[in-house]
Design brief:
Order of helices and strands: EHEEHHEHEHEHEHEHH
Helix content: 40-55%
Largest sheet: 8 strands, parallel
Structural class: alpha/beta
Oligomer: single chain
Length: 202
């Protein structure tokens, strides 16, 4: 079954709905560094910076890594949203430090990147975070899922908030996804959770 992560929220009702459904939290370095007692993963905050039109706050990420990296399921290595090979260059600079503080690091693939750009980095402790623009992400998702299965590494998909995208993740054979819909509206959690569970029956 796909592992589901929701963007961290402090709303008790929403947290309880996520807990009841067996979801985990994705904590952002750009937000409140609280896990609320959940299993969790750590995002580097690049998406928040992208939405604000600013650069990734590497200092904030370093602080979050020190605080939460050790017990995170995985940590997204710093990247540049839709930044292609510039993003990969930034990620490779940070990769050793992230691996020193976390059991698993995910390299974010971005628009223009290809399988051969990252395959040699991957293994038991380095996986794939499928980011990038929506159109590129959906078009290339099957190849990242196939690569992860071939190597035996984690493959996660960011910003999955609809039943359709959950199905795309399932058909691509990825490990997990995250979204903010269930974090914001508890009423959405059962519907989204049902979609990921239905994939087991297909």
């Amino acid at each position: 079954m796909l592992i589901a992560y929701a963007s961290r929220t402090g709303t008790r009702r929403n947290l309880q709905a996520l807990r009841d459904a067996g979801w985990r939290l994705l904590v952002s370095a750009a937000g409140c560094l609280r896990t609320e007692g959940f299993r969790y993963a750590l995002d580097n905050g690049a998406w928040s910076a992208h939405c604000k039109g600013t650069l990734l706050d590497e200092g904030a990420f370093a602080k979050a890594l020190d605080l939460l990296g050790t017990y995170a399921d995985w940590v997204v290595v710093p990247d540049i949203v839709a930044g292609g090979h510039l993003s990969l260059a930034l990620s490779t600079q940070w990769l050793p430090r992230v691996l020193n503080q976390s059991p698993c690091a995910l390299l974010a693939v971005q628009d223009g990147m290809m399988v051969e750009d990252i395959a040699h980095f991957l293994g038991p402790h380095v996986g794939i975070f499928v980011g990038g623009s929506t159109a590129w992400k959906e078009a290339t998702l099957p190849q990242w899922g196939a690569l992860a299965r071939q190597i035996g590494c984690w493959c996660h998909v960011g910003r999955v908030n609809t039943l359709r995208r959950i199905h795309l993740c399932g058909f691509a054979g990825v490990t997990s996804f995250d979204g903010s819909s269930a974090s914001r509206y508890a009423v959405n959690t059962p519907r989204l959770d049902h979609a990921r569970r239905q994939l087991v029956l297909l």
